[in-house]
Amino acid sequence: MPIYLIVATCTLVHAGFGGAKVAIPLHALQLGIDVFTVGIIMAACALAPMMIALYVGRLVDRVGPRVPMLCGAAGVALALLIPFAFTGLVALCAMAILVGTAFQFFFVPTQGITGALGQPEERARNYSLLALGFSIASFLGPLLAGYSIDYLGYRAAYLVLAAGPVCAALLLWRRGALLPRAAAAGGGEGRGSSFGLLRDPRLREAMVASALISIGWDLYQFYFPIYGHAIGLSPSTIGTVISTFALAVFAIRLALPYLARRWAEFELLLYGIAFSGMALLLFPLFRDPWLLALASFVLGLGCGVGQPMSMSLIYSLSPPGRASEGAALRIMFNHGTHLFVPIAFGGVGTLMGFAPVFVSCSALLLGGSGYGLWAEWREEKTARREA
Fold first, then answer.
1. Span 284-294, pLDDT tens digits
2. Smallest Cα–Cα separation from 19: which of 178, 259, 225, 317?
3. What is the rounded (10 degree) CA torsion for 245, 211, 279, 126?
4. Cα Rg, the chain, nearest whole Å
5. How far is it, in rounded angstroms, from Cα 300 to Cα 242?
6. What is the pLDDT of residues 104-137, one digit of tens each?
7. Residues 6 or more apart from 354 whose CB is under 8 A from it?
8. Taking the CB of residue 377, how many other CB atoms lie within 10 A of it?
9. Residue 31 has what DSSP assignment?
């Protein structure tokens, strides 16, 4: 039962949060804000979460997941109601900051405790279920945002998006006792800095790979609404195209148990990064919604591999009693990309146009995955020689 409660609440909360990440840039553009400033607003979603991620991870390891998850779900709902109650750029900025911060209190516990449920051999299944929940939410959120904006307007769209987190908060309030603690405390106050976890080279490599896949995902979520708006697509069309990305993420995660039997987790993560880098090159070539939907689906296949593989790797490599802290460290690095991507690529788009944005991000992902695969091959060759 706990894993299904976690998946259900993840779907409800992330649908609201994911819909907000579509609505914010479209709303800002509708208010006449330039692309670079939109990037700064989107980066605000990541600034506070990046700063508090480690605190949240330690808090969850200490007090358990129920209260942080309940507060996070309720906080996301309240943040989404800000632009419903107040209009203008200030309300939009306040919502962007608060929705990202509140989501952190929900997101960190879900990753830390999922690996602790059941036996070790059930970990991959649990993370796959969690990832499927996020995939469903990533499909529903943009659709809800796009069609609500088109048919109800921006203010009502935020009210619709807040419904999911409200339902999740009610579920956690009524059934939250089902949730376990992440793990028994291990090491107390003397366990050292969270950054000390990075002394493990394998854990450090997993963090970097997770950040790379996050860059590709973030660029798409931030920049595609802007690109779609610039080429004349309606909000509902943009939401539908983004939902095909989520559909591909869902599909590839159904196939992950089979793929994991053929390749190691880290190899799968690197292949996913490379595939995503190649898919990004398709977007500047198309303006037709059907072709953009196809490109989005292809990108989703690559990005969909990354999240569950990196979550499982980081849980298994984290010391006992520090699972949520390890997850929080991963999230902190990923939020660094959430902060970097909108500002950096928003500036590139303002100065150079759309194509260089997708090409430069593709080069970053292909270079990182290529180096990682080469390092894996070299390490394997050295191990064979020593054997």
1. 888 899 999 99
2. 225
3. -40
4. 20
5. 9
6. 888 878 876 776 676 666 666 777 778 778 878 8
7. 227, 230, 283, 284
8. 10
9. T
